[in-house]
Design brief:
heterodimer; A: about 325 residues; mainly alpha; two-stranded antiparallel sheet; 4 strands; about 70% helix; globular; B: about 270 residues; two-stranded antiparallel ribbon; 11 helices
């Protein structure tokens, strides 16, 4: 059993670009759910919109990547507005269902055969990130013990984590500001905030837009990192991963999403690696062998972690019990 | 799902997996293991699903309610459970679509402009009988009245001597049995795989919310409307988008009349 290999795989994934992307999603969700108390279950929809914004602009229309990025952000804002305007007044659990349904609608439409000229339908878009990797200043990758990344991977993870750092700081300042105080008071008791003359709807809308743009940034990074965009990536499961991350790290904490993402990826990749090793040594019973079972077990582990965290420590690693919107 | 929500306030994201479980259990009993006739396999499978539901209530929800876990936390826990169940089903049964051995290929009967197989007729008849049965149970039996009382106001029901814990257990067993039955019927009409229930989950939400979350009749009405809407939409639009329309209906209903067709106007906003 090569523990070193397992640790290496896990560590590489924990600091890799996918972790950064999940951190962005979770950061957006932190603004929605952690600080404003909005039960947005359609965060993957923002990721989809961001990714396709860049993808369609570059692959279908041949625009420059920078314009694609701007388009993606505009689309994320538009989706937030379209989603929020009619639905923000709904009760929490209904809002959850509407958001999940909206994200699924986006996915179905993007995947459908009729959209094939725009989004590539069931096949998706390819070659989205050539401009991105042209900017890569690294000639070689890096090879520090467990941390082996190719030049391209190094570039995307650097950009990704830099973005995460920047956004975490921005969110941190926002939440410490008067705006953030109002938003948190809305989470605690909407009616009190309204009775003090605050435009609750406006603040919720702003929060939805900000968290949505963060989700969109995650989608943009996804498109640029993997250089392809396929609607099938953007399943509700991604939103659940983001929630798991947020709950692990602690909702309504500045570093919760980042730490949660790193831990999540570590466990996810680590468990897959462990299972692969066990299989090689012949310690797994027959029906648990194969990559399908491996994937399934890792996902089941994610589900288990979610259940256990919520049961025993819903405030996560950094969180404080009073601050979380989970008790309603 | 509607009954469970009405009495416990929980939106059970794992309901889809219970549907899948019922369907797959019946498949296992019918096509694999003991190879019973579908009728017997179905009955046993539905009973098993009820057992799972009861087990969930006793082993998971009741202890969590005792720890005063919030409703939202419970909902996300149901999401985690649904993920675990789905993967467990994937590991156990693989990803292929499974088919029952009985009633697969049948002659279509003609009734004027409608052509159906006897199997489809039987499915509709069974569904109607069950729905009517549930409605009668709610109206006429003591447990039905107790159920409606708990759905209305838990504390008042408890203080008038109703054993709320027993009612909730009953609801979970009954609700999951219905889910399992739905799964078996669906799988009889087509096939089943580990994702079947999850794919139907949003449609279930749509049906329940359209009809009115918390009313049994509402769930029936909603189910019929959603089923009709998804199939009729294929006349004009590509069949890939039929789920999109169901979801769009869901959103519109929540915006315009959140209590659904038959629901009561309580605070949904």
């Amino acid at each position: 059993m090569e523990i070193g290999d397992i640790f290496g795989n896990a560590a590489r994934a924990a600091l890799g670009p996918e972790a950064a992307i999940l951190a962005l999603l979770a950061l957006g969700l932190n603004v929605h759910f952690g600080y404003t108390g909005l039960y947005n279950f359609g965060q993957v929809g923002f990721m989809l919109v961001g990714a396709f914004g860049v993808g369609v602009a570059v692959a279908t229309w041949g625009w420059s990547m920078w314009i694609g990025i701007v388009l993606a952000i505009v689309l994320a804002v538009a989706f937030a507005l379209a989603l929020g305007l009619p639905t923000l007044r709904l009760r929490a659990d209904y809002f959850a269902i509407v958001t999940i349904a909206s994200a699924e609608i986006l996915r179905f439409v993007a995947r459908s055969g009729s959209a094939i000229d725009l989004t590539g339908g069931p096949y998706g878009l390819q070659d989205v990130a050539n401009d991105f990797y042209d900017l890569n200043p690294f000639d070689d990758g890096i090879d520090l013990g467990a941390f082996r990344y190719s030049a391209n991977q190094l570039f995307s993870l650097t950009v990704g984590w830099a973005l995460v750092g920047l956004c975490t700081y921005v969110v941190y300042r926002l939440i410490r500001s008067p705006w953030g105080r109002v938003v948190r008071s809305i989470r605690e008791d909407e009616d009190v905030a309204r009775s003090l003359g605050k435009n609750v709807f406006g603040y919720k809308m702003q929060s939805l837009v900000i968290g949505g743009v963060l989700g969109g940034l995650g989608g943009i990074m996804w498109a640029l990192t993997t250089s392809s965009v396929n609607a099938n990536t953007f399943q509700p499961q991604q939103t659940f991963f983001a929630y798991t991350i947020l709950i692990i790290g602690g909702a309504a904490t500045p570093l919760g999403p980042v730490v949660g993402a790193v831990i999540f990826q570590f466990i996810f990749a680590g468990s897959q690696s462990t299972l692969a090793q066990l299989e090689r040594e012949g310690w797994l019973p027959g029906f648990l062998e194969g990559s399908q079972a491996r994937g399934a077990l890792s996902l089941a582990l994610v589900g288990l972690i979610l259940v256990l965290m919520l049961t025993f420590r819903p405030e996560g690693i950094f969180g404080k019990r009073e601050e979380i919107a989970l008790g309603r | 799902m509607s009954l469970i929500f009405a009495t416990t306030g929980l939106i059970n994201f794992a309901h889809g997996e219970l549907v899948t479980f019922g369907a797959i259990a019946a498949w296992f009993l019918n096509a694999e293991g003991p190879q019973w006739s579908l009728l017997v396999a179905a009955l046993v499978a539905v009973g098993l699903t009820g057992l799972v539901g009861g087990g969930l209530e006793l082993g998971v929800w009741r202890p969590l309610r005792g720890r005063k876990t919030g409703l939202f936390q419970l909902m996300v826990i149901s999401i985690g459970l649904s993920l675990i169940f789905r993967q467990a089903l994937l590991i156990w049964f693989g990803s292929d679509s499974l088919r029952y051995t009985d009633y697969t290929v049948q002659e279509r009967l003609e009734f004027g402009p409608i052509s159906l197989t006897p199997r489809d007729l039987a499915i509709m008849a069974i569904a109607v009988v069950c729905l009517v049965g549930v409605a009668l149970m709610l109206q006429r039996t003591r447990i039905g009245k107790a159920l409606r009382a708990v759905a209305d106001n838990v504390d008042l029901a408890e203080s008038s001597g109703i054993d709320v814990r027993r009612v909730i257990l009953f609801v979970w067993v009954l609700g999951t049995m219905l889910a399992g039955l739905g799964g078996v019927l669906q799988a009889t009409a087509t096939t089943v795989n580990y994702l079947s229930g999850f794919q139907l989950l949003l449609l279930m939400f749509a049906a329940v919310i359209l009809g009115g979350l918390g009313t049994a009749y509402g769930a029936m009405v909603g189910g019929i409307v959603v089923g009709l809407a998804t199939e009729i939409s294929t006349v004009w639009l590509s069949s890939e988008l039929k789920f999109v329309w169901a979801l769009a209906v869901l959103i519109v209903v929540l915006l315009v009349r959140p209590q659904g067709i038959l629901g009561e106007k309580e605070r949904v906003a």
